[in-house]
Amino acid sequence: MYLGSFEVFKRSLAERMQVAPSELPAWAVLGSAGLGGIMYWGFIFPVDCIKSAMQTDSIIKSERKYPNMVVTAQVGWAAAVKLAQSCMLSGAGTSAVQQHIMLCC
Questions:
Q1: What DSSP string describes the chain?
Q2: Structural domain total, the chain
Q3: What does the pLDDT look like over 68-88, one tens digit per residue?
């Protein structure tokens, strides 16, 4: 998810700037990587919240707060969205720096 969206953004910018992807300026690569990080966390975070809620629920079936993924998603969606916003922002910066280091070093 992350690398795929990063490549799509990077190639799109290269096409618009009429240069090869390897000749893009650092700001374009960093921006593409940041957008890739946002796409990744935007997709993964809600799923991860559902998984974590179900993992921490009671092992005794009759005491479970979340009997299935649908109920878990309905109950925890607002919290997942609120938490995902901060996660996507940090993911954008982290992804940009990571790609810059990988391409420059």
A1: -HHHHHHHHHHHHHHHHTS-GGG--HHHHHHHHHHHHHHHHHHHHHHHHHHHHHHTS-SSGGG-S--SHHHHHHHHHHHHHHHHHHHHHHHHHHHHHHHHHHHH-
A2: 1
A3: 888 887 776 666 666 666 666
